[in-house]
Amino acid sequence: MALSVVDLYRDILPKTNCGECGHPTCIAFAGQVVADGLSLSECPYLSSETVERCSIELEEQYAKGKWTRRDMAEDALAWARERASSMDPATFQARLGGELVMDRDVPVFHLPYFTDTLLIRELAITTREGLALTRWEQVFILNHLAQGGTRRPTGRWKGFIELPNTTSKIKNMVDSVEEPIARAFSDNLLLLKERALDQGGTVETENAGSADIAFLFSPFPRVPVILLFWDADMEEGFEAKAKLMFDETVTDHLDIESVVFLGEELASRLVEPKPQQL
Ligand code: SF4
Q: Which molecular-function annotation in GO is an example for this chain (predicted)?
């Protein structure tokens, strides 16, 4: 019988997210095993019998090309739906902000998302205009619904590196979020300000520190993000630098992979906004 990412996570892995395999979560490790052929023996908590038994099944599905990387989004979406389906929609409003509205006896959750509002009806997600989201965006939103946190932001800010279990994701945050923003807006603070305001950002002065400019965004009501930006100074030999700061409660509302996705989404909206994001 083939083993999907969900099967591995649910039935085989310890689900402790200890990070000893070099992945921040067991589900991330399962994804690499299924899609990229990573050996299950990288998890030190599985018995050799379990590794051997599963490897036979995995080798068969690798040979057939089943669940290759191109199917990862679908598998992740199935997993995220399964996670989110255990959550009671009646708790969404109190936990996440937004508003739960009854529409012909069906609860529809209105969740503010950057400058838009998402409508979530029986875990189907559209924008207010009825546009569908990409599968990875849906995974991201469903993980936010499923994370289960209840705390409101405290106003105590942390860099990504200070959040728990981020070691293996720091490079992603730098390479796909902070450096693209720094490159795109080096010597162009006016354009950065224009794009940031378009995404609902406000100029942040209280927590800007030594940055030349800072913006506060609210991608979700309970998930604020600050972008700090230092412009290039050629005379001093400094290149532009960008850094995201998260409220200390962010991991109540998003798993670490979703925090990176959030950073990537913000970077993409600033650097290359799509027409509907303007
Ligand atoms: S080593 Fe990886 S797969 Fe194993 S329990 Fe820890 S995080 Fe999960």
A: 4 iron, 4 sulfur cluster binding
Model confidence over 163-195: pLDDT tens digits? Answer: 998 988 899 999 999 999 999 999 999 999 999
Q: By residue range, what is the domain housing residue 110?
A: 86-146
Q: Which atom of ligand 1 is nearest to the CA of 18?
A: 6
Q: How many domains does the chain contain in total?
A: 3
- Ligand 1: atom nearest CA of 45 is 4
Cα–Cα distance measured from residue 28 to residue 88, given in angstroms and rounded to the nearest whole number: 25
Please give the pLDDT value at position 68. 63
- Flag whether 80 is in a domain: no
Co-location of 163 and 133 in the same domain: no
Which of these three, 19, 39, 67, is where a domain ends? 67
Among candidate residues 47, 44, 48, the one with its CA nearest the CA of residue 20: 44
Cβ of 216 closer than 6 Å to ligand 1, yes or no, is no
- Provide Rg for the chain, Cα atoms: 20
Task: Identify the band that residue 19 occupies on the pLDDT scale cut at 50, 70 and 90.
Answer: confident
- The pLDDT value recorded for residue 152 is 95
Residues 239 and 177 reside in one and the same domain: yes
In this prediction, residue 278 carries a pLDDT of 45
Ligand 1 pocket check for 168: Cβ under 6 Å: no
End position of a domain, from candidates 96, 115, 146: 146
Q: Whose CA is nearest to atom 3 of ligand 1?
A: 26
Q: Is 16 in the pocket of ligand 1 (CB under 6 A)?
A: yes
Q: What burial class does residue 272 get, using C-beta atoms within 10 Å of its C-beta: 0-12 exposed, 13-18 middle, 19+ buried?
A: exposed
Q: Is residue 22 within 6 Å of ligand 1 at its C-beta?
A: no
Q: What is the mean pLDDT of the chain?
A: 90
